[in-house]
Write a structure and sequence with these properties.
The chain is α/β, with parallel strands linked by helices. The protein folds into three domains: 9-176, Toll/interleukin-1 receptor homology (TIR) domain (Rossmann fold), CATH 3.40.50; 179-303, 3-Layer(aba) Sandwich (Rossmann fold), CATH 3.40.50.10140; 318-450, 3-Layer(aba) Sandwich (Rossmann fold), CATH 3.40.50.300. The protein has 16 helices and 16 strands. The protein has helices spanning 21-39, 58-67, 78-81, 84-95, 98-104, 153-176, 192-204, 217-223, 237-248, 266-277, 292-303, 328-340, 356-362, 375-388, 406-417, 436-450, and strands spanning 9-14, 45-46, 69-74, 116-118, 142-143, 146-147, 179-183, 208-210, 226-231, 253-257, 283-286, 318-322, 346-348, 365-370, 396-400, 422-426. A five-stranded parallel sheet has the order 8-7-9-10-11, sandwiched between helices. Strands 13-12-14-15-16 form a five-stranded parallel sheet, sandwiched between helices. Strands 2-1-3-4 form a four-stranded parallel sheet, sandwiched between helices. Strand 12, helix 12 (328-340) and strand 13 form a beta-alpha-beta unit. Helix 1 crosses helix 6 and helix 8 packs parallel to helix 9 (237-248). The radius of gyration is 26 Å and the shape is flat. The model is unreliable at 52-56 and 306-313 (pLDDT under 50).
């Protein structure tokens, strides 16, 4: 789990394979160790591994890792700036995420933030690497004589600066996330499932789960936007003080009870009864037997995460293209749609699982792109789209090569969701005109909404 909520990795290390691999690996090992110590928490640093390369699909894994990392660490060199993959894929892909990041990190401290650090590891003629993320200040690990050895004073000086700046950025990003106080932090066996389910969901949705340290628990509770108490068979004397603080606030708080509480020792039974009877308008009490999934729903409903504005859309409507991103043919089909209508429509893609639910709920329209997948996949995905999207009437299905057995699923979708829904069929070469009945009303409706 990353230190910064909402990301899979904290740091993506971008380097050229022609550079000194052993130096890079040793550098990253030191970086993780020092970051962990400075932050007091395990950090996730992504570096591709030569040992596992034959068994992994890096053509998909690396772009996904770039997009799901909080910070981009660029180890520039003469080889790096000549690498089409480093410059045209990794750097450009991360740069494309900046608008989306700025829509989340909105305070003044992030106004000019590029969420990247640039570290030359070899001298570069004419400082050509400055064209990569212009405005960044270099933290150099090289001079005219070459790359700094790890045991030299020059290395330690640059390394100390890098760790300090990187830790500061990660802290600011983490602290910007809305906090939820989930107690106890180390649950007993009867609370483990509920704690794990809720913690994972909150983190994936970019919430910061507290407490993240064993001191100043009252202060951490007061910082949180919402507090959740998980009550099981073990009595915790500290919980009583924290409950009184939560009850005295106007912020919402939740009590969830494990079925085992009914068979607990008398002190815990009494604490449970006190929680049930405690008069607090901000309290939500969930009786024993409520499943962890229902707890998750209640907590998310109370948090009411704000709608994020569409990113970089200007006056364009946003359309979420749903397709099997692991299939090359499906990506090609989606790419044809995205490229053809890129000037009129802002498209989002299934590149980040943590964003899937939000995109379904907040896009102006959702278009399911179906090519190679089976009927069950299509029916399941379309059902989720209809249930989650804010404008069910704006959903659509674009089918490529609609031969058997696709006709059965298409007929079922028509029966289940209505003939007014758009279903377009693409035969042979891509035909943009087929999608006109889907995009034209969307463009007109968006113009009306904004006029």
């Amino acid at each position: 789990m990353a230190y910064v909520p909402g990301f899979q990795q904290d740091v993506f290390v971008s380097y050229a394979h022609g550079d000194d691999r052993k130096w890079v690996e040793a550098f990253v090992s030191l970086l993780k160790s020092d970051l962990d110590d400075k932050l007091g928490s395990a950090t996730q640093i992504w570096l591709d591994s030569e040992d596992n390369r034959p068994s992994r699909d890096f053509s998909r894994e690396i772009p996904a890792a770039v997009q799901s990392s909080a910070v981009f660490l660029l180890l520039a060199s003469p080889t790096y700036i000549r690498s089409a993959y480093c410059v045209d894929v990794e750097c450009k892909m991360f740069a494309a995420t900046l608008d989306q990041r700025r829509s989340r990190f909105t305070t003044a401290e992030f106004v000019n933030e590029q969420f990247a650090l640039r570290c030359p590891i070899l001298p570069i003629d004419n400082n050509d690497h400055w064209a990569l993320f212009p405005g960044l200040t270099d933290i150099a690990f090289a001079d005219g004589s070459g790359t700094f050895a790890l045991d030299t004073a020059d290395f330690k000086r640059s390394f100390g600066r890098l760790v300090g700046e990187l830790a500061d950025l990660l802290k600011r990003m983490r602290n910007h996330s809305t906090a939820v106080f989930l107690y106890p932090p180390s649950p007993s066996a009867d609370l483990t499932e509920a704690q794990a389910v809720l913690s994972a969901e909150l983190t994936a949705r970019s919430y910061r789960v507290l407490p993240d340290k064993r001191v100043k628990l009252p202060e951490q509770l007061r910082e949180a936007a919402l507090t959740v108490f998980l009550v099981g068979e073990q009595y915790d004397d500290s919980a009583g003080e924290l409950v009184e603080i939560a009850a005295a606030q106007k912020k919402p708080w939740v009590v969830w009870c494990s079925p085992s509480v009914e068979n607990a020792a008398v002190d815990q039974v009494g604490f449970h009864a006190h929680l049930e009877q405690l008069d607090s308008a901000a309290k939500t009490y969930l009786k024993p037997g409520i499943l962890p999934a229902k707890l998750k729903e209640e907590v998310l409903a109370l948090l009411k995460p704000p709608e994020r504005p569409p990113v970089d859309t200007a006056d364009r409507p946003s359309v979420y293209l749903v397709y099997n991103a692991r299939d090359a043919a499906e990506r090609k089909n989606a790419g044809l749609i995205s490229y053809t209508f890129r000037k009129e429509i802002h498209f989002e893609h299934p590149d980040n699982p943590a964003e899937h639910t939000r995109r379904l709920a907040h896009s102006d329209a959702v278009l399911l792109v179906w090519g190679n997948a089976d009927e069950e996949w299509c029916s399941r995905e379309f059902l989720e789209i209809v249930q989650a999207s804010r404008r069910p009437e704006a959903n659509g299905l674009c089918v490529f090569d609609p031969k058997e057995p696709k006709t059965g699923a298409i007929a079922e979708i028509r029966r289940s969701f209505g003939d007014h829904l758009y279903i377009g069929e693409q035969f042979g070469s891509f035909n943009a005109a087929v999608l006109a009945p889907f995009f034209t009303p969307l463009l007109r409706r968006t113009q009306d909404d904004r006029s």
